[in-house]
């Protein structure tokens, strides 16, 4: 199970690093064109803040365990990513973007499994 959680955490981190970097490094117009029309409703600062939170969550899910320091941050970061996905799912559901809601639900499930495993029976 430990190996499964590492793989799931790594996949979660890669996905959130990519999504966060796209939001943080690209101008708002490019984010709207690539990520969806939802971004048009938000200021450039808000989009960059979301991207930064995604990057920090991804790093927090992997780095503490990788360097064996403050490993309690791993499930906390996974919980934070799950909360981001709840918010994102609410935004997409309000806009009627069913496909994006499904992606958010999948990412939420992945983050929940990592949080459950690392808070509970498979803690470091």
Automatic annotation (TrEMBL):
Keywords: Membrane, Transmembrane, Transmembrane helix. The keyword Transmembrane applies. The chain crosses the membrane at residues 6-25, 46-67, 73-93, 100-119. It holds the Pfam family DoxX_2. It is found in: Membrane. Coiled coil: none annotated. It comes from the Bacteria. It is a multi-pass membrane protein. This is DoxX family protein. It comes from Streptomyces albospinus.
